[in-house]
User: Fold Cyclic di-GMP phosphodiesterase Gmr from Bradyrhizobium yuanmingense.
Amino acid sequence: RIKNNGKGLAAFFDASMEREAQARMKVEQSLRLAILEKRFCCAFQSKVDIRTQAVKGIEALVRLRDDEGVIQAPGSFINLAGELGLIDELTHLVLAEIVKSIDLINDTFGPEATISINVAAKQAGNPEFMRSFAQALEETGFPQRFMIEVTEDAFVAKNHFQDEILPMFRKLGVGVSIDDFGTGYSSLSALADITADEIKIDRSFITDIHNRPRSQGILRAIESLSEALGMTVIAEGLETYEELAYLQAATKIRYAQGYYFSRPIFLEELKLATPSSSEARVSVASRPAQQH
Ligand code: C2E
Ligand code: MG
Ligand code: MG
Ligand code: MG
Assistant:
């Protein structure tokens, strides 16, 4: 509907706003449809011991296949899925996908590798969802294999996440990981009040770390606090040999996740790419592969 009020500019804005609203509706519809039709898949990225290159665990990273069959990374749909109330279902679907592929996951990454699932802060603050998700994890029969990754905001939010929700997961043996640490609003000292098994230092601190004295200082502080609190530290977004060399020479950080070790990979692709030798499987899993 274009207002015919004789003012060209107003009509132009009306028309462009209408186009925008229509475009948004189209995106919403296609997201609803994609989830309804289960047109999604998980890519897995390993968390690697930087000394031995052993895979400590993997993280499931969801992708959607749009109407044209193009694979979309979560940046383009996770927030919208949250707004539309579709994200809880998506998380349950991710878990179902993992359970379905568990044999292949074990063959590829080893039966000891932990399996991390991302939970948005909004989900973490919703006790109803968290209860149903904990129950679903329990029903897999192997809840101890899983970790949930939650950003620090969820921990400092004024709700029952820390006191009531987290203990429920920990009782099942599900690990708890603080994702993207350093990007939220909590201060370093807030760490002292957080109960978690793992802390993932955001990529923004790891990128070019060897050239950035301020990031180096922050890294040292997080490292010593985490050590005192008994949390495992993971460096996120490690891309280069120089970054790795710095971590090895100047820190005690033992684990990293990033393109340097492996891009997120699809299991089906490994199945196609690998012969039956398990050695070949491991080398494919830990070698940087094409990004998805
Ligand atoms: P995240 O949990 O912090 O995951 C790490 C992101 O960094 C992933 O992006 C990964 O592909 C990317 N990454 C890993 N290594 C490198 C590197 O060396 N360099 C660079 N530049 N990037 C790297 P992705 O897969 O696009 O996911 C983005 C975010 O979407 C995730 O950030 C997570 O917050 C969210 N997400 C992913 N899957 C799910 C899910 O199933 N549920 C929810 N609620 N959120 C999810
Ligand atoms: Mg994560
Ligand atoms: Mg992260
Ligand atoms: Mg991140």
